[in-house]
Protein: Lipocalin/cytosolic fatty-acid binding domain-containing protein
Amino acid sequence: MPLSVLRECLACVVMVVSVSEPALAWLGIPEFLEFGDCANVTLKTDFDPVKYAGLWFDIESVPNEYQHTKQCIIQYYTWTGTHMDVATRGLSEKGKKVQQGAVMHKEIEATDNPDPAYMTVVASGVPEAPYQIVATDYRSYSCVYSCIEYFGFRAEFSWVFGRTPTLPPTTIAICHHALTTMGVDPEKMNTILQGEASQDVEGGVQQLASHRKDDGAKSPNSSNSRHSSSVSFLLATFLLTIRPLYG
Structure:
């Protein structure tokens, strides 16, 4: 990290050390930050992005303050041959319709021999994050893990996706078991409400596809996004560290 950026981060920390707990909450420090390292997960073998593309419903997930959609969430994945375009539609906490777009690239920095089941999500206005498929049968369910760690802190997320708005408990248990065996707590996930707004699948798919097309399916500058992600996470980590001292 450039020295100038680090100085800016430290200056921000100095500025907030005397701020009260409500003010820290007002600053938007993410509640998902916690102590610990990311899990060393095993990825889906011989992952096929072509089979993975298409419509997915959010069944369960760890609450994420960066995700504006909170209920009736559907996502449409389009494999371009080099990356995955992702269009998400759902409702906010207040019931307002929300659409978000993102691009998922193969993670070329994770290893000299990149695994197609390890991708990186790049979207405007949010930190860049890994997307690791740990299990999927392509036809009914997908289990996904994502985690960012810095200086002893982590932001850890997991998801259960389904090709239908609901999944039987036995199928959800497959993801829970896979995550548990890798040291990930599935109890952190909440059930996502899938109501009438997510039933119009055909119309939703058309809207999502056109939404990504209208956006031009442009990928945000990866290096800038990675830099922004690191700075944001580092600053949030500093604030979380001092929070107990000034609450």
Q: What stands out?
A: The longest helix spans residues 222-242. The chain is about 30% helix and 30% strand. Residues 3-34+225-245 form one domain.
